[in-house]
Amino acid sequence: MSKITALTITSILLGATGALSTVPVYSQCGGKGYTSPVKRSTTTSSTGASTGTLVTVSGSASHSIPSTMWGLMFEDISYSGDGGLYGELLMNRAFQQVTPGTSAALTPWAAVGTGNISVIADSPAISTALPNALNVSLSAPNSGVSNSGYWGIKVSKATTYTGSFYYRFPSAPGSTVTATVGLKSSSGSSLVTTRVLLKSTTSWTKTSFTMSSLVDASDTSNVFVVTFGSFTGTVYLGMFSLFPPTFKNQANGMRQDIAQALYDLKPSFFRFPGGNNIEGQTAAQRWQFNQTLGDLTARPGRVGDGLGFYEYLVWIESMGMQPIMAVWAGYSLDGLSIADGSMDQYIEQARQQDFFSSTSYVYRWKDIVTALQADYPSITTAYDFDPQLTPTPKSYDNHVYASPDWFMANSNFYDGYTRNGTIYFEGEYAAISTNDADVWDSYGRLTYPTVWSAVSEAAFMMGLERNSDIVFAASYAPLIGRAAENQWTPNLLAYDPSTVYKSTSYYVQQLFSTYRGDQYLPSTLAPVSGSLFWGIVKNSKANEVKVANGGTTAESLTFALPTAVAPRGSLIQLSGANTTSNTPTNPNAVVPITSSISTRQNLTFTAPAFSFSVILVPI
């Protein structure tokens, strides 16, 4: 068993709704983001820098860059878990949360040959958590069932697939049954196959197999198939599973290419399993971590729970991240309602909906947080509402979804925040629309991040970096979405059964995390109303100069660095037309380009229109 890193920070979402005095910028989940989520001291106007202006860089660092600065926020929406990050290839593998006897219960299963199939409530069941099974009636040899996976299955040469399923015969056939398991193309040609022997038993039994493909399929329109040779009659099947090699070969683990893309971001933390996701549509449908533990047959199976708490933690540890777990302090505890008056001496966790309104937040905060801090001093609570509170919150969780214009105009968002010991987690942010009036409207909504949206996020992130004495962590959201169908756009990564697509915003995140530095060097501040932004961090080997130009023309500036530098450095630059996106049809339309650059203590640099650049200046 893997040694699991302790949960070092817990984000407790104490409220879900409520009218506040400030104007919401918009939030995906777990609270709201605000243009002014706390009271700030008056911001002094920045000293301006126009085109060609000298930018003076201090030789004394203002603060250290937190090790937790850049990370990942995972919300299991838009098929980001099942079919996405989670490596399982078979959809509806255990017939959970379906109505037996309906056609919908069979999605995406189909009969092969003369087989007739239906979902039944079987007794005895595989387990109390898995009451349903697939009834397969076979009237001729070589018949069976197929599953088309999550919108297709990728089949690659020299790839070993690991699978299993449960079976039982309602009437024992009297001898061993040979089943053929494999993957076939849409034309019916066999891509990979193996055989398993099924015992003559009326009890649920698990069979496992491995099979290796010798060919590359021409596309992903492939299906998983189980046929039963010469056997005719009825067999019950359940709890199927099929995995390709997973990230770091972890059991019940993550899809390799998606997990690798996330690993390449060099993230420090992983916030999971979301905000609205943990609430569910009802209290009964909320995410319950204890029901995602243990053998797969012990998990009742709300969508996404194949990827359970343990799997999250094993993967988080293998990625070198720290876990930030969101906990819903919601309307009920274990689905129980408590009668009024019966627990007057206690703080009721689930009583009336008005108990959770914003008007009562102040006293609820005091009661809950005081008790938590007394009994669990290692827990850090994150706060996402606006009234003045006692005790003073130790941290805030701020969210913002807005336009590129907003992000550029608010690069100085945290500059005027009072330094009073409170720290901030920019838990969700993204430029999602060019419609400043209403980012939720379909007009202006981005399908994929663009060059402009990514550059504007870079401008905002430089503000986070500049204020990382109080901003301890930040994460773009949402993280992953299916390319062909999703509940939210844009996403940092898009995917289909064969490929993961890295957005322009992905590359900005990667550049910030890779070149995060150890110390922040103050410099001349960019104009609040401008489109040119910069920031300088350093480590023991180099100054790392970041420049974002969100304007329509190239901009030139000179950095007066505090010490002598090496004569050659490196430039990593992302640039392109403002509306260009990386899409499934053109996945590499815009990617960072690395080149050598001449460097000196007075470093002159011209930033192209709509670009984000990182200049590595060796010390």
What does this structure look like?
The protein has two domains: 9-85 and 250-521, TIM Barrel; 104-245, Sandwich (Jelly Rolls), CATH 2.60.120. By secondary structure, it is of the alpha/beta class. It has helices at residues 81-85, 256-263, 276-279, 309-318, 361-375, 404-409, 451-466, 504-514; strands spanning 9-13, 54-56, 63-64, 72-73, 109-112, 116-121, 132-138, 144-147, 160-168, 177-184, 190-198, 205-212, 223-227, 233-243, 269-272, 322-328, 382-383, 395-402, 423-431, 471-476, 480-482, 493-495, 500-502, 519-521, 532-538, 542-549, 555-560, 568-575, 593-598, 602-607, 611-618. Strands 3-24-25-26-31-28-29 form a seven-stranded antiparallel sheet, with helices on one face.
Cα-atom Rg, whole angstroms? 27 Å
Termini distance?
A: 45 Å
- As for the CATH topology of the largest domain, it is TIM Barrel
Kindly state the percentage of residues in helix: 10-25%
- The CATH architecture of the largest domain would be Alpha-Beta Barrel
Overview features:
alpha/beta; TIM Barrel; Jelly Rolls; 2 domains; 7-stranded antiparallel sheet; 5-stranded antiparallel sheet; 31 strands; disordered N terminus
Secondary-structure blueprint:
Elements: E1 9-13, E2 54-56, E3 63-64, E4 72-73, H1 81-85, E5 109-112, E6 116-121, E7 132-138, E8 144-147, E9 160-168, E10 177-184, E11 190-198, E12 205-212, E13 223-227, E14 233-243, H2 256-263, E15 269-272, H3 276-279, H4 309-318, E16 322-328, H5 361-375, E17 382-383, E18 395-402, H6 404-409, E19 423-431, H7 451-466, E20 471-476, E21 480-482, E22 493-495, E23 500-502, H8 504-514, E24 519-521, E25 532-538, E26 542-549, E27 555-560, E28 568-575, E29 593-598, E30 602-607, E31 611-618
Parallel strand pairs: 1-16, 2-27, 4-15, 15-16, 17-18, 18-19, 19-20, 21-22
Antiparallel strand pairs: 3-24, 5-8, 6-7, 7-14, 8-13, 9-12, 9-14, 10-11, 10-13, 22-23, 24-25, 25-26, 26-31, 27-30, 28-29, 28-31
